[in-house]
Structure formats: C-alpha cells, structure tokens
Amino acid sequence: MPKVSKRKSQLHAARACRVSNVKVSDSSESSEVEYRMDIDDEELRFKDKILLTDIGDLAEMGKSKSDTQYLSTLLYISLRFFNIKWEDVDDYLKNIGFMTAKTSHKWATVFIEGDYEEFSSDLRGGKHTDSFYDAFPEIEADAKALIIQTCSQKSGEFKTLDLAQFIDEKYYELTGIKKRSGDDLIRSERSCRLDV
To answer: Are 171 and 139 in contact (CB under 8 A)?
Structure first.
C-alpha cells in the first residue's frame, strides 16, 4: 500500500480531532504537529438578565457609530418578523436605550412603504453636538483619576455606578445647578461602562 501523503495525513488528523475534541498527533509525521479544536462546551445562556447589560452596551456603541433611528427600526422589524409581541418589543427597546416601539413602528412603516427619502432625512440633521466630555473635559480628567485611584487600591474594586455618581456630583458642582430628587444621572451607568 502506498504511503499516505502529508496533506492527507493532516486532513485525517483534523477530522479525527473534530469528532473526538481531543489532541491528536500523527505518529507518522516527524514534525509532531498537534491538531486541536478549541470548542467551549458551555453555551451562552441568552435568557440571563445579565446579558441585557451587554446588549445595552452594544446598543450604546451602535448609537455612537450610527443613527438611533436606523438601529431601532432594524431591531423593531426583526423582532416583529419573529412574531414577538409588540409590548415585549417595546419593553426591550426601552431597556436598551432605543426608540419606543411606537416610534420604531412609525419609521418601519415609512421605510416599508418605500419612502426612503423621508426615512433617511429625518430633518433633525443627526448628531451635531459635542459629546459630554467635549463640553466638560475637566470632569473627564477627574473621572479618569478616580478610576486609576480606585483600581490601584488593594481591593481594586471598581463599579461603573460609582463612576456615574461621581460624574453626576462633579457636573452639578461645576455647573452650579441644583439636582432635584428623582432626576436621572447625567451620564448613565451604561455610558460610563463604555467610557471605562
């Protein structure tokens, strides 16, 4: 029987590895090349509520790169395509910081009816304002100092909620505005998580 080529030997080892999920080395090869498939046996649990914060973070990143209208409409249409109840879609969109289902439905209708010009020209002109830290660079410097100081301590325990509250205090201190009870934080915890 003819000798098996190096390529066929590697292919055979890779196939065997895929099936068995263990390290396989072909003894006929002198280079001792090992093939291994790194497959994580633990699946992501997509029903966990902790994942909602990750989705919110991704939504914040998406909003900084693209228009919220497009993202909200895309997500709304996708969720409704899979027959998810309108109320659930509305709650979900609100939780991750997107437009409500009512507004998203309006824009989806405009898009589906083919009025692409109206859909793409909202007449609001998009984001033409400075970011929070462009307007308050001293708060950004203080926030960075707080992060470094907190993380350099022995415990090294840092929470983005602490950062959000710190920025909130600095903002009201700097502007001289009185914070009313029930007011939201100036920078959300989700935004602060992205800042870190």
So the answer is: yes
pLDDT in tens, 60-102: 777 777 778 888 888 998 899 899 999 999 999 988 888 899 9
Residue-by-residue DSSP string for 64-89: HHS-HHHHHHHHHHHHHHTT--HHHH
Length of the chain: 196
Helix orientation angle between 101-112 and 86-95, rounded to the nearest 10 degrees: 110
Dihedral class, residue 39 (left if φ above 0, else alpha if ψ from -120 to 50, else beta): beta
Q: In whole angstroms, what is the distance from residue 34 CA to residue 15 CA?
A: 12
| Domain map (residue ranges) of the chain | 6-35, 50-120, 132-195
Token pair 């939201």 in the structure block, residue: 184
pLDDT digits (tens, 9 = 90+) for 13-55: 666 655 544 444 444 544 555 555 555 555 656 566 556 677 7
